[in-house]
Write a structure and sequence with these properties.
mainly alpha; 94 residues; 73% helix; 0% strand
Length: 94
Amino acid sequence: MSTLSEESRQIVASLAHRVGPNADIATIAQAIASIWQGMDAALTPIIGQQGVAALYRRSLHLCAANHPSLAGTYDSVQVALDLNTLKSVLVEQS
């Protein structure tokens, strides 16, 4: 089992803090979608909707290497974030 990088540990700690100690997978999926909504709102005025979609696609592409179920989500992103699809894929994870 590989160890997490410092950045990965910080991300996990931030998500754990956001969802609380008794969160279920649906709460975690909603928190991840909420984070992306915030990023979309903050970055769209700076890099545009297509720029945010490119960052989202790149994130999904990198995650799909370790989580193949995200590959289909990556393929469906064109210009706008489809966070409902992301949430539905995440809810199916263990």
